[in-house]
Design brief:
Blueprint (H helix, E strand, L loop, with lengths): L6 E2 H18 L8 H10 L1 E3 L2 E3 L1 E2 L6 E4 L7 E2 L12 E2 L3 H23 L5 H18 L16 H23 L3
Antiparallel strand pairs: 1-4, 2-3, 3-7, 4-5, 5-6
Helix pairs in contact: 1-2, 1-3, 1-5, 4-5
């Protein structure tokens, strides 16, 4: 896989959603701090309508692409792209920006309620049972996330781990609010 040193559009977009998830779960506003600058950077970094590059050159911010040669090289154009690797796309930026705007409009409790699909007690208990083994693998004895590779963990792996734990906690909280 070709991953040059770069700022990256896709992980940046996903980080916004992840930070919102962490805030909704913890209530800790420090997780919201990076979101406005991340959205501003993404807005400046557009390569077209609803389109961003995967990679941006450090220092210049120019989009960079991998060529399709046997040995990938960096290119500033899309003339010949490395096949089988998404090097530009919308990355969900509009959806994440809309979620951020909705959080600002509704506040934490309002967004949690708006996003929470009504579930029965049986559905919540089943969801907790389904997620429980994975959560036990992910969360260490000190309550820290530990079930993913520490050596430069893939941001998508970390995001999936946080999503699993936050979904588990939300289901447990909702079940508790039912008096169970």
């Amino acid at each position: 896989m070709f991953e040059p040193p770069s700022a990256c559009g896709l992980p940046s977009a996903r980080a916004i959603d992840l930070l919102i998830d962490i805030y909704l779960t913890t209530g800790d506003e420090r997780y919201l701090g990076p979101i406005p600058s991340a959205l501003a950077w993404l807005e400046r970094s557009r390569t077209g309508p609803n389109e961003w590059a995967r990679f941006y050159e450090p220092g210049t911010g120019r989009p960079i692409y991998a060529t399709s040669h046997d040995r990938p090289e960096i290119s500033y154009t899309r003339d010949v792209l490395y096949a089988g690797y998404a090097q530009f796309g919308d990355w969900g930026v509009g959806r994440f920006a809309a979620r951020w705007a909705r959080l600002q409009e509704l506040g934490r409790d309002g967004l949690v309620q708006a996003e929470r699909a009504p579930r029965t007690e049986a559905e919540l208990r089943q969801r907790i049972a389904d997620l429980g083994p994975g959560v036990r693998e992910l969360v260490g004895p000190e309550g820290t996330l530990g079930g993913y590779p520490a050596n430069g963990a893939n941001p998508n792996t970390l995001a999936a781990a946080v999503h699993t734990v936050t979904e588990y906690l939300a289901a447990a909280q909702e079940l508790g609010e039912m008096g169970q």
